[in-house]
Amino acid sequence: MTGHSQRLAEFVAGLGYHDIPTDVIERIKLLAADLVGIAIRARHDADSTPTLMDAAADLGLGGGDCGVFGGTESFGPLAAAFLNGALGHSLDFDDTHARASTHPGAPVIPAALAAAEMTGADGKTLLAGIVAGYETHVRLSLGVVPKEHYAKGHALTSTCGAFAAAAAAARVFRLGPDQVEQAFGAALSQCAGTLQFLQGGGWGKRFQVGYASLNGLFAATLARNGYQGPEQPIEGRHGFLNTFSGAPQPDNVSQGLGTVFETLNVAVKPYPSCRYCHAGTDGVIELARRHDIAPGDVESVTIGTSHTGWTIIGEPLAEKHRPGNVTAGQFSMPFCAAVALIEGGMGWDDYDRHLNNPDTLALAARVDVVEDARAEQCFPAQMSASVRIVAGGETYETFVEIPKGEPENFVTPGELNAKFTDLAGPYLPPEKAAALFAALMQIEDFAAPRDAFAHAFADAPATPRMAAG
Question: What does the DSSP assignment read for 242-291?
Answer without folding.
Answer: HHH-SS--THHHHTTTTTS-GGGGEE--SSSS-GGGHHHHHHHHHHHHHH
